[in-house]
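User:
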Amino acid sequence: MSEKVHLQLRTRPAPYPDDVRARLDEDAKKIIARYSPPEAPDPTMARSALLPLLHLVQSEDGYVSPTGIEFCAEHLGLTGAEVTAVSSFYSMYRREPTGEYLVGVCTNTLCAVMGGDAIMDALREHVDPSDPAVTLTHVECNAACDYAPVVMVNWEFFDNQTPESARTLVDSLCSGAEVVPTRGASLCTFKETERILAGFPDERLGAVHAGGQAGAPTLAGLRIAREHGMSAPTAEEVRDSGAAPLGSEQANAAETTKDKPAPAPTESVPPEKGP
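Assistant: Predicted structure:
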């Protein structure tokens, strides 16, 4: 006699309350209209709105909830599985509820060598996982290696961190004090940040103009180049060097070659010449 198999069917998530749904519907229409104008709707182009829509539902729930997934799927004519596949691919979309401040520590090679691992260890001991103010996570490269080690809070940079400065930063976040990143305006909450990432304006006074400029480490290469009179080659210099200009027969051949499948393991690379 065969064993009984019990299947647990997935139930449809609870919908948003009517007032929340009405507000999100209006926001979703504005987002989708950027890709598929109402006067010329194009379902295929409308699907390009999925990424900002995921930020929109994340601004409501603090993560991409099952309800948010169904909301995006319904607006774009997708299945829940298709929306989930996208939301689970990109690390900026959270799979679990997130605190007011998402603190991400870079532990990639350069940040790790400069102290990122030590910062992560210190914050793991320092942050209370049950504290609704802070969610701690490690992140892949923050693209700020010239300021390593780097911590990000709600996607804003805090450069040249140490275990002590990172602990102080978290304490400030938990206390409700105003916290200003190395670059940019004062921090807003995770949900507020997500609404901005969905494409809606940051309406805080002076926030848009609080960006700042690139610092000395970022501009070091440019400074050295200028000191030594170095510059990018001109079009004439590229032509005289014998390099294939863009759009030439050689360049087009290279573009065609790169799209060819890799040779089979039994083939010689490069192919052997015949007799």
